[in-house]
Amino acid sequence: MAKQPLQAPKGMHDILPQDQPYWNMVRVASTRVLTDYGFERIDPPVLESAELFLRGVGASTDLVEKQMYAFKTRGGDSLALRPEITASVVRAYIEHGMHTLPQPIKLWYQGPVFRHEALGAGRYRQFWQVGAETLGDENAVLDAEVIQTLFAFFLELGLSDMLIHINSIGDAICRPNYRKTLIAYYRTKQERLCEDCKRRLAANPLRLLDCKEFGCRELRREAPQIVDHLCEACHAHFREVIEFLDETGLPYMLDPYLVRGLDYYTRTVFEYFLEGGDGTGVDEESRLAAESALGNVPRVTRLALGGGGRYDGLAELLGGKPTPAVGWAAGVERVIEVLREREITPRPVHMIPTPRVFLAQLGDLGKRKSLKLFEELRHAGVSTAQAFSKDSLKAQLHIANRLGATWTLILGQKEALDGMIIVREMSSGIQEMIGLDKVVEELKKKMHK
Ligand code: AMP
Predict the structure, then answer these.
(1) Closest Cα partner for 108 from 155, 163, 44?
(2) Which residue minimizes the CA distance to atom 13 of ligand 1?
(3) pLDDT for res 293
(4) b/e for 106-131, b at 16 or more Cβ within 10 A?
(5) pLDDT over threshold 50, residue 112
(6) Residue owning the nearest CA to atom 23 of ligand 1
(7) Closest atom of ligand 1 to CA, residue 329
């Protein structure tokens, strides 16, 4: 019986050669902008101990409870494929004693994350995030700086119509009171909540504000807003962030119900949408459903392209010293989908540069010797192409022509025996014979003429 061809796991995809120019565009933009803003790159491992996310992100969050790929290794360790990267960065900060360096520490990353999500437009189970984190300082100017950095990243890619949704969710001092007020509000309306929210009400009431169910969205309209319940310090911090944003002229809107799904956030939280994307509508999900039913609005443009916030308590949750911090992550696949939709095309990236030289070989000895010669040419900086699997000279010259090589080297059986090689100038067809031991130097000279 013929075997079924295998496919990539659901929600996970190949980034094919033809996709790479987009990915490269994102890589170039993120590297440029984040380097300009003084962030240094960090690459934590893709696997971490599951406990990192249980403690850091929160055991009762959807991200950990429902979406995390966690497993036991053969040795019995509990590991997880990272569902986000902030917790890893903070772990690394603590593990490598970065608190002893001048603060703040500014780090950025780019890499895959894994979430067992329900699939849909712009929702994958492996997707890439670009992110930035500023650790070790609580100054509100740093909140504004990271927000501006994310804006600059989108701008660099040609996405200038972003709208920032921003809110403050307070801290360990003021949030407990707000929680109580929120629970009291929802208790009286409990029977109208979805099943998930009924369950969440006691453990994580802020999450109710985040629920996408229509009924819960409706109830949210009248819910108490956290901005009205911030303690003085959080209020002052938020006001400062907003003042800085006003100075920058970045387009933002206050979104009193933005909470974000993770436990570690304190104070500032924000998300980036395309302008007119999420909009301000309370029942945006039903609008989405209607729009996608009409088939005229690509849904991915309605999803958040990036988000983040302040997480002043995370380092302590992970066993470190108190370390105020703020950061964000943007989803690369979603950004690329928007670029494609808008027909913002990347400059072609020649991963393999146009070769100046093509190395053709004939016969066993020619083929055997050409592997070594190819490496010598490459090492000497002579950009060379080859087609070692081909035997006929005609086929190889055809490829050399197609690639636009200036010279083709022909290493035949006889030449190889004599320690010689033919250099053919492709435009004129003129050929000369050179000693095999001199050919690299000769080509270097020719190239610089
Ligand atoms: P989050 O911290 O969960 O808001 O994630 C940061 C960014 O990652 C989001 O703003 C999205 O752009 C992207 N993202 C989140 N979940 C997914 C997913 N399942 N598939 C693709 N991109 C995602």
Answers:
(1) 44
(2) 331
(3) 47
(4) bbbbbbbbbbebeeeebbbbbbbbbb
(5) yes
(6) 331
(7) 6
**Closest C-alpha among 261, 331, 257 to residue 301:** 331
Q: Quickly list DSSP for 152-205.
A: HHHHHTT---EEEEEEE---TTTHHHHHHHHHHHHHTTGGGS-HHHHHHHHH-G
Give residues (CB < 6 A) around ligand 1: 84, 115, 117, 122-124, 127, 129, 304-307, 329-331, 333-334
Average pLDDT over residues 438-448: 92
For residue 69, the CA-to-ligand 1 centroid distance in Å is 16
What angle is formed at CA 378 by the lines to CA 375 and CA 29, rounded to 5 degrees? 130
Residue type, 348: P
3-state DSSP assignment of residue 1? coil
Q: 120 is written with which tokens?
A: 């849909």
pLDDT bucket at 287, cuts 50 / 70 / 90: very low
Q: For residue range 172-201, what is the model confidence (pLDDT) as tens digits?
A: 999 999 999 999 999 999 999 999 899 888
Q: Which residues contact 389 (CB under 8 A, 6 or more apart)?
A: none
Contact 376, 51 (CB under 8 A): no
The alpha carbon of 114 is separated from its chain's Cα centroid by a whole number of angstroms, namely 12
Q: Regarding beta strands 162-168 and 252-254, do their DSSP bridges make them parallel or antiparallel, or are they unpaired?
A: parallel
State how beta strands 78-81 and 47-49 pair.
antiparallel
Cβ atoms < 10 Å from Cβ of 376: 14
Give pLDDT tens digits for 326-362: 999 999 999 999 999 999 988 765 555 678 999 999 9
Write the residue with the smallest CA distance to atom 10 of ligand 1: 306
Query: What's the predicted TM-score (pTM) here?
Result: 0.86
Sign of the dihedral through C-alpha 65, 66, 68, 69:
positive
Lowest mean pLDDT among 97-111, 143-157, 342-356, 418-432: 342-356
Task: Report the distance separating Cα 49 and Cα 332, nearest Å.
Answer: 25
* Cα–Cα distance for residue pair 122/228, rounded to 1 Å: 34
Cα separation, 194 vs 434, in Å, equals: 81
- pLDDT of 224 strictly over 80: yes
